[in-house]
Amino acid sequence: MKKKIIKGGKIVTATDSFEADILIEGEKIVQIGKDLVNIDAEIVDATGKYVFPGGIDPHTHLDMPFNNTVTDDDWESGTIAAAFGGTTTILDFALTAGETKLATAVDKWHDKAEGKAVIDYGFHLMITDLNEETEKELPLLLEKEGITSIKVFMAYAKEFQASDRTLFKAFKIGKETGAIVMVHCENGSVIDELVEEAKMAGNTAPIYHALTRPPEIEGEATKRAIELAHVAGAKLYVVHVTCKEAVDEIIKAREKGYDVYGETCPPYLTLDQSLLAQPGFEGAKYVWSPPLRPKSHQEPLWNALKAKQLQTIGSDQCSFNFNGKKQLGINDFSKIPNGGPFIEDRFSVLYSEGVCKGYISINDFVDLVSTNAAKIFGLYPQKGTIAIGSDADIVIFDPKIKRVISAKTHHMNVDYNAFEGMEVTGEPVSVLLRGEFIVKDKEFVGTIGGGKYIKRQLEKKVVSPLETALLN
Q: Are 75 and 63 in contact, with CB atoms under 8 Å apart?
């Protein structure tokens, strides 16, 4: 592997912005400074461009079965699209619905990813039920696999929803192991009742997907998850926050000192509920959960990002073709496969809509697309920053390029783009993974299967003197 010097660019991390060169040897950054020279090194010219740490997408669903079908982006097409979008590491969800052993689900996800992923990856472990056997298995599996996060659904009552008892047990295991518990906060049982009411009234169009999942339902579930996590003494990560009701609960909890983190996604910051009400069946393209909200919810989300009350931007990549798959629900909105294609445009949409429009600083941008996820999920400082000793995961980003997002030019294996027609400013032009180009001058040069599974580090539980006394 040839040495490289990235010269002439402006390095931007979560805390600093400065002009300097970067020397890469093997997979690591070994030197940062002015006017670096090494006669054995390939020179990479980044003049006039930003040099960012590789993006970390903490929320993806590749090759995932759902609603009697499977997502159209697998670990090859999905990670290629991620690479073009400036993402060098993803954290995907190993689903456990139906498995008697949790390890079986993790093995399935290894099989899906190995030999296909072009970027690095890790897993979150989703659980639907905790019995005596799986309660014993879970801590050992987290340590063995280097998984630092557990996912629990409060939604999808017929597929994934866990009981409050299982949720609370997960929080207790999270506290004992140091794992963070990620929760999809909606009240699935109430949603099912609202869906049945809508269908009984003959309301089957895509807009009813949003109208049967009102923001109050997300807010109620968010508060419930927060209080259960607090009682258990666990860390909570609320995924894909969409609305003021949920944001307000997270802010109140954090102000009280609760260990709560929040994630939102580019569509909730830029698209709104009116898209589901388009004539015909076009609105099905915008069916995912939680749903898009009225435009008034966008300002609270941006304000929470700026105030650091929300910490990460996930894509929630979960792509289903419009033709053939979204159309499964043409006569019944509840049968439309939930999810959208976002993995490729996460980076650019947040930069263009957030940094260029003054909602967030460029350092906040790096924090949101990379650094915070690395810290929360146990990847930092190997990933998520530009520093000596860190993996040379680097994005060379041209802030002057303007482009129009379109399904005609994206790299996802799906027949539409949720951001179709949006003009964005700024684009990754070259991307390095552990010191090797995977995208160079907007051409894919990576290796299918070149991505590695990354074991993360659990934060060990510190037992307080009071707990020690109680245990004895």
A: yes
Q: How many angstroms separate the CA atoms of 40 and 3, rounded?
A: 7
Q: How far is CA 187 from CA 131, 154, 222, 409, in A?
A: 23, 6, 9, 38
Q: For residue 266, say if its preceding peptide bond is cis, omega within 30 degrees of 0.
A: no
What Cα–Cα distance (Å) separates residue 293 from each residue in 61, 225, 271, 432?
A: 22, 21, 8, 36
Using a 10 angstrom Cβ sphere, with 0-12 exposed, 13-18 middle and 19 or more buried, the burial of residue 307 is exposed
Q: Among 385, 298, 286, which Cα is nearest to 340's?
A: 286
Work out the pLDDT band at 159, boundaries 50, 70, 90. Answer: confident
* Residue 391 backbone phi and psi in degrees, to 5: -60, 140
Which pair of tokens denotes residue 318?
Answer: 């979960």
Q: Where are the beta strands (DSSP E) in 219-361?
A: 236-238, 260-264, 312-313
8 A C-beta contact, residue 370 and residue 13: no
Provide long-range contacts, Cβ within 8 A and 24+ apart, for 253-259. 253/226, 254/309, 258/226, 258/229, 258/230, 259/229, 259/234, 259/235
Query: Reduced to 3 states, what is the DSSP secondary structure of residue 193?
Result: helix
51: Cβ contacts below 8 Å, ≥ 6 apart: 6, 9, 10, 11, 12, 22, 386, 394, 395, 396, 397
| CA dihedral sign, ordered 290, 293, 298, 304 | negative
- Residue 393 confidence (pLDDT): 98
Tell me the pLDDT band of 468, cut-offs 50, 70 and 90: very low
pLDDT digits (tens, 9 = 90+) for 384-394: 999 999 999 99
Average pLDDT score over the chain = 95
Confidence check: pLDDT of 471 > 60 = no
- Angle, CA 84 vertex, CA 349 and CA 63 arms, to 5°: 95
Return the residue matching tokens 């009400």. Answer: 277
The kind and range of the H/E element at 57 are: strand 55-60
State mean pLDDT over 437-444.
98
Q: What is the pLDDT of residues 29-87, one digit of tens each?
A: 999 999 999 889 999 999 999 999 999 999 999 999 987 899 999 999 999 999 999 99
Sign of dihedral through CA atoms 382, 387, 391, 395? positive
CA 170 → CA 59, 131, 133, 177, 219, distances in Å? 19, 11, 14, 10, 21
